[in-house]
Structures are given as structure tokens and as C-alpha cells.
Amino acid sequence: MFRIIQISKPQLKNPILIEGLPGIGNVGKICVDFMIDNLEAKKFLEIYSTYFPSSVFVNENNLVDLPKMEFFYKRLKNQDLILLSGDVQPIEEVGCYELCNKILDIFKKVKGKEIITLGGIGLSKIPPDPKVYCTANNKNIIKKYKTQNLNTKIFGVVGPIIGMTGLLIGLAEQRKIPAITLLAQTFAHPTYIGIKGSREILEILDKKLNLNLDLNSLNKEIKNIEREIKLKTQQFTTFKKKDKKQETSYIG
After folding, report:
1. Domain range list for the chain
2. How far apart are alpha carbons 126 and 134 in whole angstroms?
3. pTM
4. Residue in 252, 79, 55 with CA at minimum distance from that of residue 161
5. Are 71 and 106 in contact, with CB atoms under 8 Å apart?
6. pLDDT digits (tens, 9 = 90+) for 131-179
7. How do beta strands 81-86 and 16-20 pair?
8. What is the pLDDT of residue 140?
9. Which residue in 87, 105, 219, 224 is deepest, having the highest Cβ count within 10 Å?
10. Which one, of 126, 79, 123, 99, lies nearest residue 19 by Cα?
């Protein structure tokens, strides 16, 4: 079950959706939260769901927040952005499928053109110079985002791309929406914050989408993002320990 709160109904121009949710190194969430702050994006929609963990987060005001996902928009010159962030991912596979399809329904209604998902590739050691890899649901979008710093030979580098980061681009193909995922190497530890990998992805997006991000402010802004992520990670650790599934090389 979903509860959708529509805060506003912006008229968007050929929007691109960029998704970044909690995962390995929190790479995707760091990127999207930074873009939301740096671009001063405006929230227009929230999703609550019974597919999210049965818990609440205690905020800095000592009050509770239900886990949610949030959609923000930013108007650009030629193409608008939708930025999707959130506190959690669905804890069950059925929920992941249904939420991804719900997001694609929303994206279709605003006549979205393409999707970019962001995540991390978990390594056993901290990578000094993280590499960024990509895969997609068609070759044309890979050509569009190809840069010298983006590796397209990903086969054999990662296992299954688990979670919404992978499933969203797979389901997008069924709706003929071009979609690509950018994955940065990071340390596969639940409390590690993959700042270096996030920066590599942000540099690629900044160049390809002409975002004019102030990447010099990343280290400063990252402290606030890091504090929020660590707080929610600590609160969520007990819940995650209940999951006895085998670890994979990449989790969305």
C-alpha cells in the first residue's frame, strides 16, 4: 500500500529522473541529496508505504519521522530534473517491484524522458581512486553519457544489481524509457560514507547535464548529509541484522 502526498503539480519540460537511495556507501543518496541542496530543488511529492520497514526515525527535535521517499524538481534551460531521494528502500522483493512501478507511473504522467540511477560497488577495502561504471537498458543512452572517466565494461565486475537502483532501469525498459545506472566503487561497510565515489559521479553528471554544481562546497555540505545518514543508519542497524540473506558484490 502507498500513501502519496502531492505537494505541488509543477509543469515540467522533458524531465530526467535521477534516483539516489540508501545503499552500499550511500553513494547514490549522497549524490542526490547534494544536488537537492546545491541546486535548491523544490519538493513536490512524498511517498509513504507499508513496504518500508516498520520503524520510525527520531529526528533532531526529538520527534519521530516515518520513512518516506521524496521527489524534488529543478528547472533547467533545456530539460528539467526530478531528484528522487529517500530514507530507506523496500525490505521485500514484491514491495520493490511495486514501488518501482509506482515511480514509473508518476514519471510517465509528467512525460519523463529518461532515468539515471546511482549506487555503489562494494569492495573489501577502501578504494583510493574510485572508478565509476555504468550499465543501461539500451546502448544509445550509454553513448550519451560516456566520458573518459566512465567505464562501460561492467560485465564480471559486479554481481546482480539488487534493489531499486537496478530494478528501476530494468522495468523502465518495458515502458520504453531509456535508463542508465552509474555505480562508483566504495567500501562495503554499513557505516562507511562513500564521499570520493560520490564526487566522481557528481563530476560526470555536472559535465553531461550542465548543472553548474558547486563541487567545492561538497566537503562542507557533506558533513550535514553524513550526519543525517549516520544517524539513520545507526537507528536502522538492528532492523537490518534480521536479514540473513547472503551478501552480494553490489546492493542498490
Report:
1. 2-235
2. 20
3. 0.89
4. 252
5. yes
6. 999 999 999 999 999 988 899 999 988 888 989 999 999 999 999 999 9
7. parallel
8. 96
9. 87
10. 99
Say how many residues make up the chain. Answer: 252
Nearest to 82 by CA among 12, 135, 147: 12
Whether the pLDDT of residue 233 is over 80: the answer is no
Count, in order, helices (H) and strands (E) of the chain: 6, 11
Q: CA 151, 26, 180: angle at the middle one, nearest 5?
A: 40
User: Dihedral sign, CA of 213, 214, 215, 220?
Assistant: negative
SS3 8: coil
Q: How far is CA 93 from the centre of its chain?
A: 18
Residue type (1 letter), 202: L
| CATH code, 2-235 | 3.40.50.10900
Contacts of 68 (CB under 8 A, 6+ apart): 46, 47, 48, 52, 86, 87
Mean pLDDT of 30-45: 96
Please report which confidence band the pLDDT of residue 246 belongs to, taking 50, 70 and 90 as the band edges.
very low
Cβ-proximal residues to 227 (8 Å cutoff; 6+ apart), any chain: none
In which band, very low, low, confident or very high, does the pLDDT at 229 lie, cut at 50, 70 and 90? low
